[in-house]
Structures are given as structure tokens and as C-alpha cells.
Amino acid sequence: PAAPLFAAVDIGASSGRVIVGNIGSGEVSLEVVHRFPNGVMEHPAPEHGSLHWDLDGLFDQVLVGLAAAAEYAATVVGQIASIGIDTWAVDYGLIDADGAMAGPPFSYRDGRGAKQVVSVHERISPEQLYQTTGLQHLPFNTIYQLAAEQAAGQDLTARHALLIPDLIAFKLTGVRRAESTNASTTGLFDAVAGEWATEFLAALGLPAELFPPLVEPGDTIGTLRPEIAAHTGLPATTTVVAVGSHDTASAVAAVPAAGKNFAYISSGTWSLVGVELAIPVLSEASRLANFTNERGVDGTIRYLRNVGGLWLLSESMRSWDEAAASAGTVAPSLTELLVAAAAEPPGGPRIDVDSQEFIAPGGMPGRVRAAVHAKGGALDTRPAAVVRCILESLAAAYAATVREAAELSGQAVEVIHIVGGGSQNELLCQLTANATGLPVEAGPVEATALGNVLIQARAAGAAPATRGELRAVVAASHQCVRYLPIS
Ligand code: LFR
């Protein structure tokens, strides 16, 4: 029989990919078969400037990628056994009783959620919210976005909400399910019970059936709709299997840690910085420090905080590119910027990368400089200085967050694993080792896709059972780069 292969659909805020994973003896290899861009789009009139995701466009790209996966499988005499989907969290689409989508989903970078925070907290206090959900306060959590939906007069009674990966799974299979790791980012999920917090839905006047039944990573969601199988060339038996559909949950599952005493930094658009726990920390101190208890695979707790991420860098580069284009010149590449930033003197000005002022897109270098000025400092306009400031600030925030995560949870930390795009940023990795005084193990860059593939493979009986063993498979397949602190 043809060897089973696993297709990972992994979509981030700036790009998506379809990857085929192959499990060998104790190792896993990935083949990227399709890449496509993603980004927030402004809604055309009459909805002035609201920020959305082009879900129809993304779904078209998913189909192109799945067709490429089928073709690739044939060339290696394999067969795609299942598909797993992961994306960013909190955002959702609304579908009606016929399964039709009511317009493109909003992006969490739209400001509508922030406007509803007060009205939601009038009905459910922040203490009550944290006691039940253990979720960090972010103004774009699903709960506030749904309140915005109500405030805009949307009738939610006949609608179903599906988080983005669940929405893609629904379009592929016709089955409506909510995967638990991502459900844990809504503000409507009970972190201890592992169930929907139905009392909060009721308190907000949201329909009890707004979200579908929960599934766990490893559960089968459904089989491809026949027309999708025919269109992509995938076998009619191909299933969609729930993975850690929150990209961060998949990434954490693939952190190649050997022991238990590690912290992780999943470094991409955001930096998700924390530790893995067996039970949530719901203390008042934890709430005030704004740590989250998001759900990981196997019912674990991802105890972490969202630290500003490479978004600050990518948005700055977008500004410099635009300025260069209108001047008829070319802005420096990322590699050039990082070399120049490494040559900048250490100990320059820093910003609070977690500040809400950096959530929206546009004009990032100016906003970074304004934040430095607001603290009485000065930052010149040279890109190298701005990049150095961003990276030093990120490393300082990583160090503070790792220290607080360890203190608040009691979890010892002896090593820091950086996975995702930031693991390739040598300057950031070294600054992190310096700021924390701990060794940093960098890589793999594709941790999210690896976690996605491994959870599917385990469900098919093709990968080992425990998280530790899965991590060992990642470690055996990937050579980490080690950074030691230099003081
Ligand atoms: C990272 C991530 C974070 C989540 C943010 C918004 O890609 O999923 O974990 O807080 O995006 O959804």
C-alpha cells in the first residue's frame, strides 16, 4: 500500500502554506507544496475601512495547495491520508443555516472589539472572566468581537460562528466542529472544564448554539466532500483531522525540548512566550500580569503572554519599502537591516512592545519613534537604529515574560526554545540569550507545520503517543542552533 502522508494547511497573518509531512523511522520531513500571501484587507464601501480576511481567496489557495499535495504524493508513491488545518486564533466567520458565509471575516486588527470591552465587563467582570476562562485580556478576543457584532445590529440567532480553521474544515467537509485549543482563545471557553462557558454566552445574550460541539486534536472532523476530492485529486477517503488548530498550540507541540524545564517563544507575527503546564493558573496575580491559560494538545495548558512580535519589524519594512518605491529607490533587505542593526551600539532606547498602540497596521517606524520620545528618549530615523530598538525591546520583553511565567506558575526554566520565523533571526536569538542569561535553542522554523503533521500522524498510528516522544521526533529531524548568553 502507498505510504501515508499528511497535509498541513498552515495559514499565518502574512502568508499561508500547504505542506506535506512524511514520517520516517523516528523522523519527520516536510515538503512545502504551495505558498501564498495573506494580509488584512480593507473592506470596500459602504463599510469604511474595516479590516477583514479574504477568506474566499484563502480557501481558493487551500484548494490549489491540496491539489499540489495530491500531485506531490503521487510522485513519491504515497497517498495523502488526512489534512490538518491551523491558523491564527480568535477570528471567526458567521454562516447561516444554509452554510453560506455572511461576508468576509473581520481581522482582529480591526478596532471594533476594543470599543466593546467596557460593555462586556459591565455584564461579566474581568475577575469572573479570568476565573473561568483563564484568558489574557486582549481587546480583540472573540467575546468582544461578538459584542461588536451585536452592537452593529447583527442578528446572530440564526447564525453559527466558526473560528477560521473550523470554517475551512467546514468548507472542506460540510461538518461543523470547534477545535478546543482555538476555542480556548474566545473568552467563552471554560479552562478547567474544557467546555464552552455557556453561562457567558447567556450573560451576553448570545445564542447557546452559536458555536458547534468541541473536538480535541487528533479527533476526525469528517471526510472530504466528494466535489472537493474530485476537484483536488485527493482520494475520496481523505479525512480532515483536528490538530492544534490554533497555530500556537501546534507550534508548542513541536518544541524540540528534551526535558520539562523549558520555556518557549513561538516567534512570528506575535511572540508567544511561556511554559507548558498541566493545570491552569487562575490567581489574581496571574490575571494582573495578563498571562493566558490557553489550551494545548492533550489538554495541556499553554501558560503564556502575547508579546509584540516581528509584526513591528515587518510593518516597519513595509513603510520603508513604500517610501523607497515612491522615491524610485530600493529599501534595504531584511538581511541587510539585521547586519546593520547588529553593528548598532547595545543599550539604546527601548519601547514597550506589548503596547496596544502597535496593534493596528501602518506608519510603524514613526510610531516606534513616538513611543521612544514619549518616554523622554530619542531615536534617529535610520532603519538600523529602529530595527535595533525593536529587537532589543523584544528581547527585554521576552526575558521579563519568561521570568514572570516561571514565578507565577512555579515551573522551573533552564533553557529557552525559540521556534518559528524569529528562530532564524540570529541577532534576536543572541539578544534573548543575553537578556535572559539562559541558553537559547533556536528552531525549527516550521514548528507549527510540524506540530500539525505530528498530531495527524499520531492519530493515524504513525507517530508515537506521548508529547515527549513527539518532541524527540522533532529533535531528531532538526538541528537546533544554540546561543549562549554573552554579558
Ligand atoms: C499567533 C496567534 C496568537 C494569537 C494571535 C491572534 O499567530 O495565533 O497566538 O493571540 O495570533 O489570533
TrEMBL record:
Q: Which GO terms describe its biological process?
A: glycerol metabolic process; rhamnose catabolic process
The molecular function terms of the Gene Ontology recorded here are: ATP binding; glycerol kinase activity; rhamnulokinase activity
Q: Which residues form the Carbohydrate kinase FGGY N-terminal domain?
A: 7-252
The record's Pfam families line, in alphabetical order, gives: FGGY_C, FGGY_N
Query: Where does the Carbohydrate kinase FGGY C-terminal domain lie?
Result: 263-460
UniProt keyword Chaperone, yes or no: no
One GO cellular component this record assigns the protein to is: cytosol
Q: Work out whether the entry's keyword set contains Nucleotide-binding.
A: yes
Which InterPro entries does the protein's record reference?
Answer: ATPase_NBD, Carb_kinase_FGGY, FGGY_C, FGGY_N, Rhamnulokinase
Q: Which UniProt keywords apply?
A: ATP-binding, Disulfide bond, Kinase, Nucleotide-binding, Rhamnose metabolism, Transferase
Domain of life, source organism: Bacteria
For this chain, the family text in UniProt reads:
Belongs to the FGGY kinase family.
What name does UniProt use for this protein?
Rhamnulokinase
The organism named in the record is Arthrobacter glacialis
